[in-house]
Each structure stands twice: as C-alpha cells, then as structure tokens.
C-alpha cells in the first residue's frame, strides 16, 4: 500500500521534529486578542448580514402562504422569475438607471475640486447645501420632486414654458420616467460623493501641485495630471457604490411614481419586482429568489470592477 | 482600546437589558384583566377620520380607565402591505380596520378572532348586509363600522358660470356627457368631469348601470368581459378619449382627481361620502352632491363598509373585545355621525350624519342604498384586483384597447378565482 506511506501526515515524521509555531508567528495570545477585538463586529456581521443572506437563499427554494408557513419547491421560483415577462424591461430599466446615475461621479469630482478652491469660510455652507439631500427623508425628497415634475402645475414645466417648450408628464409617461428618476438619483448622490472626494483631495500633498506649477502646468493640466490620478482610488470606491446603489433602485419608483400610475408597468426596476413579490403578492419565496439573483449580479459586476481597477486606479 | 470595547459591551448589555425589561412588562397574557393598565394599538388608514377616532378612544378611556388605546395611522396606500407583513410576524395592531376586500383572506387564514363567540356580542343594530360582509363559516369576525355609497359631486360655481342646470335624480348618462361638454373650458384649464380608472368611485358603478357585473353571484367567474360590463367601462373611458372632457390618465396621475375637484379645476366627480370632510374644508369650493346618473339599465351604486376586527394573536384579547364592543355601540357611532366623518353602521344614526354637514345634500348617500349593489369581492380579492387595475390603467393611458383588455381582465380574474 504505497499510497498510505505517501500521506502528508507521514511526511513531517520522516523529516524529524520541528519547532511548533503559532500562525501569527508570535505568542498564541496575540491572535486570540486580535480575534476578540473583531468579535463584536463579526457577531454583528453574522447576525445582521450572513444569517439573513443564508435564510434568503434557503427561502428562495420555498413557497409561502399569505401569513407564513413554507413549502419546499426546489428551483421553481428561479424558473418563474427568469421567465417573468416583466423581467427584461425591468432589467433594462435598472441598467439604464445605474449607468445614468454614474454620471454623478464625474460631476461630483468637478464640484469637489471646485469646492476645494473656495475660501474656508464658505466651504461649510456649500457642503451643507450639497449634503442636504443625503440627510433628507427619501420619501420627502420623492414627494417634492413629484410636485416639481407635475405635468400641468409643476415648476419644471413652468420654467420650460417660459422658453416656449411644452414639457411632458415626467412621472406619468414611461418614456420619461427613467430619466426623471435618474436626475433625482444624481442630485441625491452628489453630496455623499463630494464628501468622499473632498477627503481624497485633502490627502493629495501640495508639493505635487507646486512641482507641476514649476513645470509650467496650468490649472486644467494640473487637474488631469495630478488631481485625477491621485483621486482615482476614491473615484473607484464611489463608482462601485454607485453601481450597487443604482441596481438596488426602488424607493424613488415607489414614492415618486406611486402604485396606480400608467407609467409604472414600463418603469419597474428589478428591486421593484422584488417589492411586488414580497409585499404586494406575498410571494416571499419568489422575492427571495429575486434578491439572490440580484445579489449574484451585484457580486459579478463588483468583481469585474475590481478586476478593471488595475488598469486605471493609482495607489501611491 | 479597552475602554472602547467595554463601552461597547455596556451598550450591548443595555440593549439586552431594555429588551429583557420590555418582555417582562406584559404579564397579563391571554386575559387583559390582570393588574395594571394595558395599552391597545388601533390600526386605521384615513387621516380624515383620525380626529373622530381619537374622540371615540377618549370616550372609551373614560369608561375604561385601565385600558389605553393608541391609534396607529398608516396611509391607505401602504396599509395592507404593512398590516400583512406585521401579521405574518405576529405583530399586527390589537384592533384594526378591515374591509370587505380582505376579510376573506384574513379570516380564512386564522388572523382574526371570531367576535360572535365573545360574551355580550350583539350585532342586532346593524343591517344584515353589513353583518354578512364579516360573517364567514357561520362566525362573525368584524363589527360593522360604517358604510359608503357613491354620489356625483359637482362644483356649483362652475355650473353657474357655464349656465348648466345642477344635476339631480332625473339625470342619465347622456345628461352627464352633455353637461361635461358644456362645462369644459380649456382656456381656463377647467374640465367638465374627472373620470379616472378607479373602480369603487367610478367603474364598478358604471358597469352595473349598464347591466353588467364584475363577479358572478357565486363568486366563481368574472363578468368583466360581458358586453354590458364593457359598455359601462366605455362610457367612463369616453370622457377621457372620445369627448376629451376629462383630464388624461397622465394628468390624473400627476394630480389626484379629488384634488382637481377640490381646487375647482373639475366640475363633476363621482366620489364616495368619505371625502365629505375634504370638500367641506376645501377653501373656495362651493359644491354639492347629487345621485349618480342612471345608465341604460337604470341606477346603481356599489356599497361597501368597514369593520373593526381583533387580531388573533393579540396579547390583550379581553381588553380588545371591550374596545371593539364599544366601537360597535351607540356612543362611538354617534361620534362618527355627528362629526360628519362617515355614515355610521349603527341603525338610526344616518340622520345625525346627514345633519352634520347641512351645506351638502348628504341624504342622497343614504337614499342610494335602494340602488346599491355589493362591492365585488371574493375570498382573496387582491389576487385579481391588482392585475385588473393594472390593465385598466393601461387602457386609460391609451396603451391598450378596451375590448382586448376586458378579455384579458376576465381571463386573469377567472384564473385567480379558480385557485380560491
């Protein structure tokens, strides 16, 4: 039986005794302490993220009654969801929305760079103004925008009428809803993005600019040659978050469009399908399947972004 | 670092401690008779009715100092969503509003406490039709709260300005069409009528006025593809697409038709008595209400009503029953009537309600009971009403023709009914 002699367990014995070493390379106590320190975080992660994820995966293979009680149905939910006639449109809307909201990234880079130039006394004011949407209730934001977008009495169409343009019904005509929602999405994410970008800008050492100036670079050249490359880690971070946020888009559809809207059928997102399954049709199993598929797509897209970052993100 | 960790531990203990305390504070168990005051939650969906409900709660608390009631208002758009999620997790309000569209599902799935088993149960003061809504398998689950019918609200100022006679009981569909054409004035931004794709306020009535039906008497098949039903739907749709005397579906989505009526942009609007307070309080609105017009097959209005029910998993069943018994009594119904909030379910109080708002001819809502047809429901109404509503919305938005949509609605509804 030659195979037995070749087992790994036999190998160290043949090589003679070795000094025992802990994984951290020092006293075992050190890594015990390390794990103890992160334990509260891991516990929270487990209770609030990992366990629900595991449950969702399990529930995605079940069917629910109106008030609970599950029955195992195998992959039926996934087959139903992937053959749902509403899915292609919803996936297309979600994709369009996510790409449109990515426009907020360059916009907030420019705004953050401009804000960096403003004298300190006014910075706080501008920051507050841009950050306000982030701390406002999404429902309140949606209601105000819904009013602004009103086809007959809205402020936007009133302003358009001043220049002779007859504005459409932005939130009740499905040709315009995705764009209307994207504008709100961009507007709402500017403040958050800018906070991250201004932190990134602050960490760029001044002497790079001084060196660039001595070499004869103007403001614009400095922005592209110094600011942008050194800000690329922040840009990468914000882009990843924006794509995740965009693919999860739901609240604006519900709040700004409402449930009885002729444009709703053409404006649904994948996350809205999840909401319909879970809370309107009480198909929690189906909803779990939607959530699992959405999570898989998100993981895939994020992985692709991490792979691509090597091509353009500069770490100092 | 150590300090931060211990602070975190303390916070954790604090949370655990609070949770521990709160779980000790409900020793009363199944019967609310135990020592100490109990607090009941009462789930409702209409902000207009909240003041009246609070008055009723106050009156109840005077008579029952050991029971507190806290009202939980959820906007109607989210009420059932929230309630069903809460019920599934065992945390629905102790007492809540119920409608005919959901009672089948909730009672069938054991979410409600049967009231007819309770000591002192008396439904003798309510019309049989209202008790029947909440009776399943010989047990009554809901205490009737109110009933509602639909009327033709009209703006007197706009009628006067256009020189059109006010609507009355003699009006037919043609009278409404003629009036809507005379009243429409695009230059002033005024429409003759608002005819949305809403069912209870609009389409379920016109379907019956044309001799059609939404659901068969045995609740097994859909009547939406019946030619008479389609005729009823077409009458309402024509205002939008043919005569163009109603705002479009898009316009009515952007601005709610009842808001358009309250602000004087729309001359006629069919709406229920529950919006009486909205129109009474609308600044500058001079309005009144007439009976719905007669269709080719005569007059018809759907009648619906709410009820108060007890959640099956309530921790305070006895206290909840005390409260529901009070809600079904004369005093509570008198408050609903005298505040002009809704037509109380309790017999003999309709008059008090009519007199509460003398500027409107509210008597028509009571009189319309003679022409009333029950609001169409089945055991699981929402299983088909959501899909049929989506199709109606499409038709109103001009994305699908009425005939194909009617066939599709009937097919969807029949499929859902077959599963019940």
From TrEMBL, chain A:
The keyword Transmembrane applies. It is a multi-pass membrane protein. The chain crosses the membrane at residues 31-51, 97-116, 128-148, 176-201, 222-247, 285-304. Its main location: membrane. InterPro entries: ABC_transporter_permease, MetI-like, MetI-like_sf. Residues 1-17 have a biased composition (Low complexity). Belongs to the binding-protein-dependent transport system permease family. This is Sugar ABC transporter permease. It comes from Kitasatospora terrestris.
């Amino acid at each position: 039986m030659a195979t037995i002699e070749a087992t790994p367990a036999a190998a160290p014995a043949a090589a003679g005794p070795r000094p025992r070493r802990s994984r951290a390379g020092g006293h075992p106590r050190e890594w015990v302490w390390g794990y103890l320190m992160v334990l509260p975080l891991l516990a929270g992660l487990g209770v609030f993220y990992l366990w629900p994820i595991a449950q969702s995966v399990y529930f995605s293979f079940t069917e629910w009654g109106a008030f609970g009680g599950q029955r195992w149905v195998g992959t039926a939910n996934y087959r139903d969801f992937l053959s749902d006639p509403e899915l292609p449109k919803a996936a297309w809307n979600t994709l369009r929305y996510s790409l449109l909201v990515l426009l907020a990234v360059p916009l907030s880079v420019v705004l953050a760079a401009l804000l960096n130039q403003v004298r300190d006394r006014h910075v706080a004011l501008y920051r507050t103004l841009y950050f306000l949407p982030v701390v406002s209730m999404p429902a309140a934001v949606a209601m105000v925008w819904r009013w602004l977008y009103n086809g007959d009495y809205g402020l936007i169409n009133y302003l358009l009428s001043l220049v002779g343009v007859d504005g459409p019904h932005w939130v009740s005509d499905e040709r315009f809803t995705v764009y209307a929602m994207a504008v709100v999405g961009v507007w709402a994410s500017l403040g958050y993005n800018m906070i991250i970008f201004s932190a990134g800008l602050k960490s760029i050492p001044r002497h790079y600019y001084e060196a660039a100036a001595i070499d004869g670079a103007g403001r614009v050249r400095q922005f592209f040659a110094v600011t942008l490359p050194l800000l690329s880690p922040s840009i990468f971070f914000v882009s990843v978050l924006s794509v995740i946020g965009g693919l999860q888009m739901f609240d604006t559809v519900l709040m700004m469009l409402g449930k009885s809207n002729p444009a709703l059928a053409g404006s649904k997102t994948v996350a809205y399908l999840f909401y319909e399954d879970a809370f309107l049709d009480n198909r929690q199993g189906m909803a779990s399947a939607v959530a699992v598929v959405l999570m898989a797509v998100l993981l895939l897209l994020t992985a692709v972004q991490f792979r691509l970052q090597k091509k353009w993100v500069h770490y100092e | 670092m150590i300090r931060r960790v211990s602070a975190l531990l303390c916070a954790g203990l604090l949370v655990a401690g609070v949770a521990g305390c709160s779980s000790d504070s409900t020793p009363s168990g199944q019967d609310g008779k135990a020592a100490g005051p109990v607090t009941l939650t009462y789930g409702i969906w209409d902000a207009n009715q909240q003041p009246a409900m609070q008055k009723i709660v106050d009156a109840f608390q005077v008579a029952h100092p050991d029971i507190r009631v806290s009202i939980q208002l959820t906007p109607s758009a989210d009420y059932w969503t929230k309630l069903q999620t809460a019920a599934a997790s065992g945390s629905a309000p102790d007492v809540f509003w119920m409608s005919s569209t959901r009672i089948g599902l909730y009672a069938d799935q054991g979410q409600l406490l049967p009231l007819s088993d309770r000591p002192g149960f008396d439904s003798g003061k309510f019309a049989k039709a209202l008790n029947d809504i909440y009776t399943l398998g010989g047990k009554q689950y809901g205490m009737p709260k109110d009933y509602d019918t639909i009327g033709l609200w009209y703006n007197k100022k706009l009628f006067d300005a256009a020189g059109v006679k006010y609507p009355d009981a003699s009006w037919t569909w043609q009278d409404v069409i003629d009036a809507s054409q005379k009243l429409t004035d695009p230059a002033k931004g005024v429409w003759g009528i608002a005819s949305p794709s809403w069912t209870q306020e609009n389409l379920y009535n016109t379907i019956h006025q044309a001799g059609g039906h939404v659901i068969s008497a045995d609740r097994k098949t859909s009547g939406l593809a019946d030619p008479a039903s389609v005729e009823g739907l077409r009458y309402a749709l024509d205002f939008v697409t043919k005569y163009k005397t109603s705002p479009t579906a898009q316009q009515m989505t952007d601005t709610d038709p009842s808001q358009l009526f309250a602000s004087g942009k729309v001359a006629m609007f069919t709406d229920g008595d529950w919006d009486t307070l909205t129109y009474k309080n609308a600044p500058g609105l001079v309005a009144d209400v007439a009976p719905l017009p007669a269709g080719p097959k005569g007059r018809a209005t759907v009648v619906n009503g709410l009820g108060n029910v007890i959640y099956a998993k309530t921790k305070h069943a006895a206290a909840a029953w005390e409260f529901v018994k009070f809600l079904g009594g004369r005093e509570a119904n008198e408050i609903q009537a005298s505040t002009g909030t809704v037509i109380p379910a309790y017999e003999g109080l309709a008059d008090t309600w009519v007199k509460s708002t003398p500027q409107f001819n509210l008597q028509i809502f009571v009189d319309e009971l003679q022409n009333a047809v029950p609001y169409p429901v089945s055991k699981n109404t929402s299983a088909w009403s959501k899909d049929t509503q989506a199709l109606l919305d499409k038709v109103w938005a001009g994305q699908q023709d009425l005939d194909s949509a009617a066939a599709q609605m009937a097919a969807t509804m029949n499929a859902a009914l077959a599963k019940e």
